[in-house]
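HUMAN: Would you supply a protein with fold tokens?

ASSISTANT:
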Amino acid sequence: MHVAGSKGKGTVVALVSAALQFAGHRCGTLTSPHVEHVNERLRVQGAPVSDDALAAALEIAMEARAAAARRNSAGGDASWFDVFIAASLWALAKEGASWAVVECGLGGRGDSTNVLCADVSVLTSVELEHTEVLGGTVEAIAREKAAIVSPGGTLVAGLAHGTAGASVAASVARERGAAALVIAPPSPAGAAASNVCTARAVLDELGRRGVRCAEGATLLGGHLLEEPTVLALAQSMLPARLESARSSCGVELLLDGAHTAASAAALVQAVAGPTPPPAASSRLAPVLLLGLMADKDARAITSELGALQPVHAVCTSVGAGVLCSPPHQVAELLRAVTDCQVAAVDELDAALSKALAVAQERGTFVVVVGSLRLCGAVRSDPRVSMTAVQSFG
């Protein structure tokens, strides 16, 4: 399976691969980016590959790149991501994976992963993103992402019928001699419900194509995605997505790598919903720890996060050596949409200390949001220990 989309790719990859594993298949996954360790990007049976296995694969890919350079072929200009994808696909074969569920890095048509001939391709969602590369309209972006579909394959699109993205996706599939299956998300649909709906459709399509469980039964998405073991395995592959943690001072934290307006809105919806993540179960107004990469729409994201009505907010960087939105500028945007006190603290360690101190004083929890890099830095902090993750609903 080959998965593209603006949001929801990681969740759909995790759900589909966990279901295939539960059904008795040896399944590998390839995702990006990682949160703490690069090994997270490449998993077999849900577990990251070992350092030795990844190193061996990277050596093979780097040798191929060097050989291409000696021949003056295009492979000699392969990027880091190109090399990593080549190494990962080699490693999945070496590890004996019978299925691979592969997430696009950026877009689809020109992505390094688009060397696959997938039975089923997936388009989870379409938003305005990376417009300088993918195009300035939803239609243009949908066309770029849907271009991963293979002739004779099926494109499963988790998009509402009649929308511009759905129409373009179906058109691209027809042009490439593939079938299109447009899945209207539940209405009203949260991000979690839409992702589960899309994963179910993917699994059902595999079953229609003759894929069976180990004991011989036809693969059925509805049945597999009701299994607690499948959901638990999928959750374990998704760090920093509605993930709960606890600090050494007893403060609960909710980590979510939301870095678009839509994902920020989904976070707010999850916190305010009938079954909030464990860290947010108190229903108290949280302290916000926010850091954004420089290429993100800070105004749109802060506008959505204002609905959390935090009691305090700390804007910070997203880690050393990373180009981020200046914390003081993000703080100004946040002040415009909230009534709480907002601080700008450049150094992440100090910012986390401040957020934890304020949360402890107020008797509430901390929401860490804006970047997977930020969440990864908080996850690895010695003051923080991971506890549980939110259900997919």
Observations:
- The two ends are 23 Å apart (CA to CA).
- The mean pLDDT is 92.
- The chain is about 40% helix and 15% strand.
- The longest helix spans residues 51-70.
